[in-house]
Amino acid sequence: MPELRKDPVTGTWVVIATERAKRPSDFVKSGEKETDTKKGGFCPFCPGNEKSTPPEVFAFREEGTNPDEEGWSVRVVPNKFAALEPGVAPERHEDSLHETMNGVGAHEVIIETPEHEAAFPELSLEQMVRVVEAWKERYQALSTDKKIRYTQIFRNHGPEAGASLEHPHSQLIATPVVPKTILEELEGVHKYDTNFGKCIYCELLNRELLEETRIVYASAHFVAFCPYASRFPFEIWIIPRQHQEEFGEISSAQIEGLAGILKEITGRLRNTLQDPPYNLVLHTAPYGSDKMYHWHIEILPRLTKVAGFEWGTGFYINPTTPESSAENLR
Amino acid sequence: MPELRKDPVTGTWVVIATERAKRPSDFVKSGEKETDTKKGGFCPFCPGNEKSTPPEVFAFREEGTNPDEEGWSVRVVPNKFAALEPGVAPERHEDSLHETMNGVGAHEVIIETPEHEAAFPELSLEQMVRVVEAWKERYQALSTDKKIRYTQIFRNHGPEAGASLEHPHSQLIATPVVPKTILEELEGVHKYDTNFGKCIYCELLNRELLEETRIVYASAHFVAFCPYASRFPFEIWIIPRQHQEEFGEISSAQIEGLAGILKEITGRLRNTLQDPPYNLVLHTAPYGSDKMYHWHIEILPRLTKVAGFEWGTGFYINPTTPESSAENLR
């Protein structure tokens, strides 16, 4: 089973997915590999092929249809090549240098539509609502597992963004430790709250609405903007107007709002940049956290390469101002 | 001129390179762009084309030859599209949310050989020594500029690793703030020293030499190994055996040793993985730091895609154990 290892200097966690262990020849020219398409091939996410995935854990289905058969509109299944696995007892070992855990957690795929060729922004609002509802459903279901501390929901679009199957899908990975990025953000929020007695994300939102120059789209429940210190060209954050710590607290009205703004924003990206590759990542408070946070979504288009300078320093070079990105997307 | 902006939550710095501001159309299909090759084209780094780069700031040259003419073996020039620029007074502005600086610093290219087609591992040992000496020369020269806090030396190999020119070269970017990644590492070293009264990198080295399973190559002055919590397949760290805080302290004997192990390790990567793309990054203490550190080099092959999960969490999924990577490279 997969193994978690922690870097002793920086605290970065790594999943060593030994099950999928690869030989050097597997990596040769891997950079040129294209997304597997249906062309002449087989798509495990298409209707009719339900038996080729692990059994579904959730689905929206027509009345009278059975699990792992046709008739679904959104279907959630464990990832066949899971980075982390449920149903095992956690084990942790530590010495003065190294910390390791077994790969307890979950790795699931949210198949967003039965239609292989559908473009995400062109899903109907009703269908997009179901996708967000499926995210919430699985997010909450996993919260009852006491071994799980955090659930990362994300969407990789395009091969350059790491998508290995073309059929529209998002994923979630639930981890037995709180990830480093979230710890850092919690620390940042805490520091601001200590200094100013306010939520920094609420303040950011107020400032963006006041300055207007980086706003891409604002609706009743959500605001989308290119952040002041955007790491990437056309980076977009979507933040709920209401101060809300955990994604699991999202209301029905907000789900409809999120579905609408996701359609709008991914559609604008698609039109403005001719269907660019991107990673969409949901940031939320860890389960049961008593620390201040404000959940949000970050969309990171993969238009520039992250290279030596970025890897060495954690500094980013962005050849485009967020102000001009926002203007182009408005 | 470029502008530095700091993310208020995480402290991540971004260089907004407004000079190179791009329109959406510049990004379309940018992922498919190949490295500019000499084929039918023009290489600004080849001998005879010295006037097409900014004037050189350092070179090893044949006696009697003039700057910015032929006759050099290694040549260092400012980057024509510099992310940061020298010779300006630093300005810093801060309010309760946003921190910004002008883009003071330096961005230079180390042209490693006059031969356009040369493979880095096949440079002669003598030539590789000159490359490392040029790194040290520029590293130290920039240390005298009081505006500069850190110099990042790095090497991007292959288009997937962000190299935009084929001619062998490395780069350096000198920054007016200490980068986040280095601050984190300094903190990790400090914590270990507080708890155990030892340098964590010295301890890691001892442990690797004792366990042997992750060692790739060990020489008199340096040890190369795949770290226990490797983020990437075939990730390799090269650490000096001697506890040494700053790269600038490297001795002549060590320079020869580093040249030798760089040739060896990049050669093995090239042979084992058929010339994979990689980022090579030098980690060192900031200039004038009084904190414990131990400089080293990290080589990060770009064989897997960094996707939504990694961007969201700072967690990495590595489909290969460092033990098997090391075995394949031995």
Would you give an account of this structure?
Chains A, B: One of its GO terms (biological process) is galactose metabolic process. Chains A, B: This is Galactose-1-phosphate uridylyltransferase. Chains A, B: Belongs to the galactose-1-phosphate uridylyltransferase type 1 family. Two copies of one chain form a homodimer. In chain A, helix 2 crosses helix 5. In chain A, 48% of the residues are buried. Chain A contains seven helices and 15 strands. Chain A folds into two domains: 159 residues, HIT family, subunit A (2-Layer Sandwich); 149 residues, 2-Layer Sandwich (HIT family, subunit A). The first copy, chain A, is of the alpha+beta class. In chain A, the strands form two sheets. Chain A has a ten-stranded antiparallel beta sheet, sandwiched between helices. The longest helix of chain A has 21 residues. Chains A and B meet through strand 2, strand 8, strand 9, helix 3 and helix 4 of A and strand 2, strand 8, strand 9, helix 3 and helix 4 of B.
Descriptors for this entry?
zinc ion binding (chains A, B); 330 residues; 7 helices; HIT family, subunit A; alpha+beta; GalP_Utransf_C (chains A, B); EC 2.7.7.12 (chains A, B); homodimer; GalP_Utransf_N (chains A, B); 4-stranded antiparallel β-sheet; 26% helix
Explain briefly what this protein structure is:
Chains A, B: It is an enzyme of class 2 (transferase). Two copies of one chain form a homodimer. The first copy, chain A, is of the alpha+beta class and 330 residues long.
